[in-house]
Design a protein that fits this description.
The protein is mainly alpha-helical. It is 43% helix and 7% strand. It is built from four helices and two strands; from the N terminus they run ααααββ.
Length: 81
């Protein structure tokens, strides 16, 4: 679940939920996002991914299907049937 990754990244960086007020999240909003009570918008995913310097799929825990192109080293989601 993506919300576990949000909490994992926050704790890894020694941050509190109220630290995200500078980015436009109230502590309550961020807490609800971590708990999965609130849906995170694409703009919010982008802000969080930029802040943590990771990809959006990584934050959403879709990274298990990420593969690297052996020619250009770009990262993309592998399509599974």
């Amino acid at each position: 679940m993506a919300m576990n990754r949000l909490k994992e990244m926050r704790l890894k960086h020694h941050l509190h939920q109220y630290d995200f007020e500078k980015m436009g999240f109230s502590a309550t909003t961020y807490r609800k996002s971590e708990q999965g009570v609130r849906q995170v918008s694409w703009d919010e995913w982008r802000k969080l991914a930029d802040f943590y310097n990771v990809s959006i799929p990584y934050l959403q825990e879709n990274d298990r299907y990420l593969v690297n192109c052996k020619y250009c080293k770009a990262e993309f989601n592998e399509i599974r049937p």
